[in-house]
Each structure stands twice: as structure tokens, then as C-alpha cells.
């Protein structure tokens, strides 16, 4: 079948190859062209730590396609649950919607590496919290070195 086609249309091979190349270029352009409408979502203007949201920390940006659950406006009184990098879109899973933290407290996720240790934990209405240490930092001029690391001079 191919041999018969080549014998009849052998002179037009270059024309057919050029037409197929043009069709492939047009198909690639159509597949990768930007869409006409990109929805705007809120994006972090700087690196953010967990805590109350400040609308000045975000700016609108057009993202196509937007991530699932992207937030377009910040509701009043929302709290950021996890840190965010500059340029990262704000999504609903980063907000503490169901639990309002008292002023001065921050919710922190705790990852437990050992599955056996995780089995010992049960849900509780409150978790213990520890105050920050109040010890003064050790002066940098007199570092303490363990005895095993100290060098001995032999005479």
C-alpha cells in the first residue's frame, strides 16, 4: 500500500512532509497557548509565619489554572495555620477556620516519625503547653567543650 502511494505521489513527498510539520506546529501552539481568562487568587507578598492574617501581606495574581481551594478574598479574623513562602497562593487548607486561637498563641503541627509512638497518643480537648525558657544565653567568648573533646598537651 505504501509502495503504491509512493510510486504515484513520490514527487509530492516534500510537500506532504511540510504540510504535516505545519500541522504539528499548529497543534503544539494550540495545546500550549495561554487561556484568555486567568482567575485571580491571593498570593503571599513575603514569607509568612503562622498567625493572624493581615490583608497587606497578600496581593492578587492571575494563575491559570488556580490551585484547588484557592482563596480570592480574606475573611475577617482568619488565622494562618502553616508557614507560607513568598509567591505561594493562599488556599483554604492553610486557614484555621474551625478553631480560633486566643491572642498570643500559635497552633503548631507536630509530626511523629515512629508509628508505635503515634499509637500512644489519644485525642484530648487540651494539650499541655510549655512556656519558653528564660535562661540567659551562654556568652560566646567562653564555650563549654566536653571533656572528651578537649585536647591535652604532652610535654
Helix content: 10-25%
- The helix tally amounts to 3
- Helix-strand topology string: HHEEEEH
Cα-atom radius of gyration = 31 Å
Q: What fraction of the residues are assigned to beta strands by DSSP?
A: 5-15%
DSSP strand count:
4
State mean pLDDT (0 to 100 scale).
Answer: 76
Class derived from helix and strand content: alpha+beta
Outline the low-pLDDT stretches.
none
| End-to-end C-alpha gap | 97 Å
Order of strands across the widest beta sheet? 1-3
Shape: elongated
Taking the sheet with the most strands, its summary is: 2 strands, antiparallel
Description:
This protein is an alpha+beta fold. The chain has three helices and four strands; from the N terminus they run ααββββα. A two-stranded antiparallel sheet has the order 1-3. Strands 2-4 form a two-stranded antiparallel ribbon. The chain is elongated, with a radius of gyration of 31 Å. The model has no long low-confidence stretch (mean pLDDT 76).
Strand-helix topology:
Layout: H1 2-9, H2 13-32, E1 40-44, E2 51-52, E3 58-62, E4 79-80, H3 115-119
Antiparallel strand pairs: 1-3, 2-4
For this entry, give a set of tags:
9% strand, two-stranded antiparallel sheet, alpha+beta
Write a brief caption for the model.
With 155 residues, this protein is α+β, with helices and mostly antiparallel strands. Helix content is 21%, strand content 9%.
